[in-house]
């Protein structure tokens, strides 16, 4: 390590989520941040990939909240920089029904402002990968909630995230996008 500072561009709350696509296992291209299933918001979960047991556990836990989120108007998609073959292999460990996309490029990771790591060894994985992040995109295509981590050990606790999104979505609370002070 040379001690040089490394900076990443971060997406800011209230800004528009960038237009980017990823690929589902069936080959279909999806646009991240564009909700489906009659929802008007989307939770985009960026995960490290098949090599990460904490990601596997997080995604499997997220499945338990899928219906509650959808009832709140929030759709889910998860994406990594894994290859199609790596995602197919990962499915053996995953028990999720929300869409999983693969092939997030380094350029897309940089545009999202996520931290990027190199594998510690060829046994870990064969490509640089995104560290965990999540983005909640509202009906206007703006970032309502953002959480970016530089390691797999720090992620939003799912029950708190889901109850918070339910509270934010309740029109009686008139809750603004937070973190907008300049």
From TrEMBL:
<feature type="domain" description="Thioredoxin">
    <location>
        <begin position="11"/>
        <end position="167"/>
    </location>
</feature>
<protein>
    <submittedName>
        <fullName>Redoxin domain-containing protein</fullName>
    </submittedName>
</protein>
<dbReference type="InterPro" id="IPR036249">
    <property type="entry name" value="Thioredoxin-like_sf"/>
</dbReference>
<dbReference type="Pfam" id="PF00578">
    <property type="entry name" value="AhpC-TSA"/>
</dbReference>
<dbReference type="InterPro" id="IPR013766">
    <property type="entry name" value="Thioredoxin_domain"/>
</dbReference>
<dbReference type="InterPro" id="IPR000866">
    <property type="entry name" value="AhpC/TSA"/>
</dbReference>
């Amino acid at each position: 390590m040379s001690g040089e500072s490394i900076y990443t561009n971060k997406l800011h709350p209230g800004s528009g989520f960038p237009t980017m696509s990823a690929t589902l296992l069936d080959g279909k291209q999806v646009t991240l941040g564009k909700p489906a299933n009659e929802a008007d918001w989307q939770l985009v979960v960026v995960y490290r990939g098949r090599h990460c047991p904490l990601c596997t556990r997080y995604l499997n836990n997220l499945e338990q909240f899928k219906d509650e989120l959808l009832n709140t108007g929030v759709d889910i998609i998860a994406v990594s920089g894994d290859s199609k073959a790596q995602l197919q292999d990962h499915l053996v460990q995953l028990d999720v029904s929300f869409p999983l996309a693969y092939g997030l490029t380094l350029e897309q990771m940089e545009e999202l402002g996520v931290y990027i790591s190199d594998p510690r060894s060829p046994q870990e994985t064969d490509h640089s990968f995104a560290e965990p992040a999540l983005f909640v995109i509202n009906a206007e295509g703006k970032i309502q909630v953002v959480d970016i981590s530089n390691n797999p050990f720090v992620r939003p606790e799912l029950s708190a995230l889901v109850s918070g999104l339910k509270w934010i979505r309740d029109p009686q609370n008139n809750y603004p996008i937070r973190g907008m002070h300049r």
